[in-house]
Amino acid sequence: MFTSLGRYILLLRLSFRKPEKFSVYWKEIMREMVSQGIGSLGIIAIISVFIGAVAAIQVAFQLISPYITKTVVGSISRDSTILEFSPTISSLVLTGRIGSSIASQIGTMRVTEQIDALEIMGVNAPGYLISPKIIAGITMIPLLVIISVILGLSGGYVACMMSRDVSTTDYVLGLRDGFNPVTVTVCAVKAVTFGFIITSVCAYFGFYTSGGSLEVGQSATKGVVFSCIWILFADLVISSLLL
Amino acid sequence: MIEVKNIYKTFGENEVLKDINATFKPGKNNLIIGSSGSGKTTLLKCIVGLHEPTSGKVLYDDVNFTDMHFEGRVPIRKQIGMLFQNSALFDSMTVEQNIIFPLDLFTNMSKAEKHERADFCLERVNLAGKNKLHPSELSGGMKKRVGIARAISMQPKYLFVDEPNSGLDPLTAILIDNLISEITQDFQTTTVIVTHDMNSVMGIGDHIIFLYDGKKWWEGTNHEIAHTDNKELNSFVFASPFMQAAREKL
């Protein structure tokens, strides 16, 4: 375990060496941003709307009583969406979408000697392959999480509109009631951290793939599994420290 | 000129290379031959720095490459071109982008100059007009030729070729051999080729090193190989009845 951790840290250090030519790296960063950001927009939109709607319905089911004001549905949906559903659930889904792609892409490059070809040319392969992905991850995943929050809360609104338990007015009042900006800070910290974990852990497993196509698949699986575990662990640490 | 001095390479308990010494001169096709598992690809990887030798050193024009760190090796690596066994073209790029890639990173050439260079390299390997194709649209032989075009795009001083004829039909294999030989002559590159293709050995082998059980077993030219009495080399080169018959006529 310590060997793997050491190799992971060394790989990260290599990844952030001075680039050979910034313009080439910049192009790669832009390409990765489009791939990770625009490419994941669809799945994030779908899961966010449904999770937001389900959250509102379940809170309404569990908490609506004559003794509790109906605006609580909006408040609880807002906090759980900002603090947990959008950053964590979205990141777990993005691990499958982005992380597996990174691990298999780099793993395939390794087993087909494309990484060797880069090294022979004098290119810092970890820098060229991994740093643009990490930079794209820590910028695009927070943006996707922001979109996820907006769509999640909109999903809750749609759920209220379709159900008779809570009115949309109560829901919106609940969203505004007792808003604590710290929740947004926690959400942003989580999103950036999870973006880093997804891209770097999956890139690590891809980079150290050896063998053939079977091992590429195994690396992608390992990358996704370890990223999910680290995301959940980081979620716990950030929540304990910041809340 | 490349000099290999007392190279040993061990993977765990397995000693793959044992005290290899060799000199590869410019303008010559230097072939490393040997049966599967004899250590020829490992030797090539030690020479280019993809593997670190357990002991010994590799000198590029008297500069000790083995003891250098990554940054120190970059100036030498810019003078290296390599054709890999499976071509190792970048899948996400077109043929032209593959060739231009090292120029993008290491030169300040203008866009027009880079395109001109790519056209020249493609013409050199008889693939003019294939600029916009992706590697997935190319045949095995074409991939090898694009690999050669990419390898020569930086006008390398040292050219390394790993199994250039594997998976190719005999005619295409001869074309690739001739192409490598012409490039070696034209650009006076120090070319090191790892192969077990006997047509290559007899056709373009200016200087041949035969590895057996991780050791340098024999060294000579393609003319000398036909008349050697080295038992292991003979059983490797003239293994087939056809080659034995051919040898008798030499």
Description:
- The complex is a heterodimer of chains A (243) and B (250).
- By secondary structure, chain A is mainly alpha-helical.
- Helices cover 85% and strands 0% of the residues of chain A.
- Chain A has one domain (21-242).
- Chain B has helices at residues 40-48, 70-77, 95-106, 111-124, 140-152, 170-187, 198-204, 222-225, 231-237, 241-249; strands at 2-11, 14-24, 29-33, 55-60, 63-64, 80-83, 158-162, 190-195, 207-212, 215-220.
- The longest helix of chain B has 18 residues, at 170-187.
DSSP E strands of chain B, number: 10
**Radius of gyration of chain A over alpha carbons?**
21 Å
Mean pLDDT of chain B: 90
Q: How many helix segments of chain A?
A: 9
Give me the CATH superfamily of chain B. Answer: P-loop containing nucleotide triphosphate hydrolases
Helix content of chain A: over 70%
The multimeric state of the shown protein is heterodimer
Distance, first to last CA of chain B: 32 Å
Give the strand content of chain B: 15-25%
Unreliable stretches of chain A = none
Order of helices and strands of chain A: HHHHHHHHH
Shape of chain A: elongated
Which structural category do the helix and sheet elements of chain B fall into?
Answer: alpha/beta
Can you count the helices of chain B?
10
Number of individual domains of chain A? 1
Taken in chain order, the helices and strands of chain B follow as EEEHEEHEHHHEHEHEEHHH
At CATH's second level, what is the architecture of chain B?
3-Layer(aba) Sandwich
Q: What is the top-level CATH class of chain B? A: Alpha Beta
